[in-house]
């Protein structure tokens, strides 16, 4: 049975982004969850391409609009 030694967790998000066998995988999962939760201007562990930030920014603006913020 394989154990998951690393977890990706975001406070105030109410959830765990998963368990991972490698620290880098957990950090990358955190980055994706952080970008989705806090938007394209959040700080990440690894560089994020401008294109991905732009795509997440579009999704983030849609989320804010739908939530009525």
TrEMBL record:
Keyword Transcription part of the UniProt annotation: yes
Compartment annotation: Nucleus
Keywords: DNA-binding, Nucleus, Transcription, Transcription regulation
Gene Ontology MF, one: DNA-binding transcription factor activity
Classification via SUPFAM superfamilies: DNA-binding domain (SSF54171)
Domain AP2/ERF: 18-47
Any one Gene Ontology cellular component term annotated for this protein: nucleus
Protein name: AP2/ERF domain-containing protein
Organism: Aegilops tauschii subsp. strangulata
